[in-house]
Specification:
InterPro entries: Quinoprotein_ADH-like_sf (IPR011047), WD40/YVTN_repeat-like_dom_sf (IPR015943), WD40_PAC1 (IPR020472), WD40_repeat_CS (IPR019775), WD40_repeat_dom_sf (IPR036322), WD40_rpt (IPR001680). Keywords: Repeat, WD repeat. There is one protein chain. The chain is mainly β. It has three domains: 103 residues, TolB, C-terminal domain (Neuraminidase, 6 Propeller); 292 residues, 7 Propeller (Methylamine Dehydrogenase, Chain H); 28 residues, no CATH class. The chain has two helices and 36 strands. It has a four-stranded antiparallel sheet with strand order 4-5-6-7, with no helix packed on it. Strands 11-12-13-14 form a four-stranded antiparallel sheet, with no helix packed on it. It has a four-stranded antiparallel sheet with strand order 15-16-17-18, with no helix packed on it. A hairpin with a 7-residue loop joins strand 17 and strand 18. The protein starts with a strand and ends in a 10-residue tail after the last helix.
Length: 440
């Protein structure tokens, strides 16, 4: 296969198995200016094209069904891959060359706000739900390579929430068309639609599975419902929680499967014992805050609440919900939170375009570990991968980003790109009087 770049703003793929009579396979469009150069990745699965002040990455595994994978801003004239395929070399005019680590690139493809993101419990998949009415599936690999797998298009309005079942084989999504849908994602490149729950009275704001995978909880306009999804293709209603007269923004299930926290606007959260999902019981809750998505720790011992500018409060679920500590008093309240698997860190996503990581090993002492910047707009959703090494965030800028949570591993990647390193003479020039201790 041969790829050509043209001043007509297109890239063309050609079948050259018969060199005397090449046949056009596909025409790739979307560049907003002259297309200057193209380059195949070493494994032949991705094509980079440079034109219109951007580099586009195309999945050409099946050249008859080419898919746009990502877009990198900038670039002039030339683009190439390093031999390991992990870095793009992009010319910037006549004097500069930029190295783009492909593992640091966002997942793109959505055409509107990405409202929700979830990682499968086995760590292999990422699902993103968007206001463009689609859910996208991506393969998650240890080296964080980007591989789009499928786009689910059954939704007819904004998608607000996505969730995987505990066995990673079922995906649920709900949104503004008032319907929760289930897909079988055992083969994530060819997901199959299973069923849709009956429409509720208005928007669906959150979906979540209980740890045993047998019950699905949905919340939305004036409702919070529990459904038996043991037989995925034939869900059965179990219970509807009484007393809701406004939008129920979040439904958070404790990992032990016993507690459901629901939140309505500025009102105090309401907690329920759902040990028997057919007969949920209200629980006494002395707190007066909102419980955001992801707001219960992995060991079901800590509950997150928020109220106004009081920061993120950490409450002891095993000892009368006493206050353990507070983080983030000086920043805007987060949209969502996520506990690390070991419970020692808390990630928060915010309207100021940032994701923050807090050390809560001693909840009485606020300690900000890292601030992740890169999103261009609000960040409504964040979650840890199951191994705790990566954060995944979704943004109104239409992208999903992956962030390294291990400082040593992040430094190692920086050093791989920062070659040659600083020498002793350069160190003395820039850091006089400081002992020579190069970071790489």
């Amino acid at each position: 296969m041969v790829a050509t770049a043209s001043w007509d703003h297109t890239v063309r793929l050609w079948d050259t198995s018969d060199i005397e009579s090449p046949k056009q396979i596909d025409v790739l469009t979307g560049h907003r200016g002259l297309t200057w150069s193209v380059a195949f990745s070493p494994d032949g699965r991705t094509l980079a094209s440079n034109g219109g002040a951007e580099v586009r990455l195309w999945d050409v595994t099946d050249p008859w069904h080419t898919k746009l994978v990502s877009t990198v801003p900038g670039g002039n004239y030339t683009v190439a891959y390093t031999p390991d395929g992990g870095t793009l070399v992009i010319s910037e005019g006549t004097k500069f060359v930029r190295l783009q680590d492909l593992r640091e690139m966002p997942l793109v493809g959505h055409g509107d706000v990405v409202a929700s993101v979830a990682v499968s419990p086995d760590g292999n998949l990422i699902a993103s739900g968007s206001w463009d009415r689609t859910v996208r599936l991506w393969r998650n690999t240890p080296d964080r390579t980007r591989e789009p797998l499928a786009t689910l298009t059954e939704s007819t309005n904004f998608v607000r929430s996505v969730a995987f079942s505990p066995d990673s084989r079922t995906l649920a999504a709900g949104g503004d068309d008032a319907v929760v849908r289930l897909w079988d994602v055992t083969d994530p490149s060819k997901p199959s639609f299973l069923t849709a729950l009956p429409p509720v009275a208005g928007e669906v704001m959150s979906v979540a599975f209980t740890p045993d995978g047998r019950t699905l909880v949905l919340t939305g306009l004036r409702t919070a419902q529990l459904w038996n999804v043991s037989e995925r293709s034939k869900p059965q209603p179990l219970a509807e929680l009484p007393g809701y007269t406004e939008m129920v923004w979040a439904g958070v299930i404790s990992p032990d499967g016993r507690t459901l926290a629901t939140s309505v606007g500025e009102q105090p959260a309401r907690l329920w014992d759902i040990s028997n999902p057919r007969q949920p019981r209200p629980l006494a809750f002395p707190g007066n805050g909102f419980v955001p998505a992801g707001g219960i720790s992995r060991d079901s011992s800590v509950l997150v609440t928020m109220r106004g500018d009081h920061g993120v409060e950490l409450l002891d679920m095993r000892n009368g919900y006493r206050l353990l500590g507070t983080v983030g008093k000086s920043v805007d309240p987060p949209y969502s939170v996520s506990f690390s698997p070991d419970g020692r860190r808390l990630a928060t996503s915010h309207g100021d375009r940032l994701v923050r990581l807090w050390d809560i090993s001693d909840p009485a002492v606020e300690r900000l570990v890292a601030t992740y910047s890169g999103h261009g707009l609000d960040v409504p959703s964040v979650t840890f991968t199951p191994d705790g090494t990566t954060l995944v965030s979704a943004s109104n800028d239409r992208s999903v980003r992956l962030w390294e949570t291990d400082v040593a591993r992040a430094a190692e990647r920086v050093c791989r790109l920062a070659r040659p390193g600083i020498n002793e003479l350069e160190w003395k020039e820039h850091f006089p009087g400081i002992p020579f201790t190069p970071p790489c």
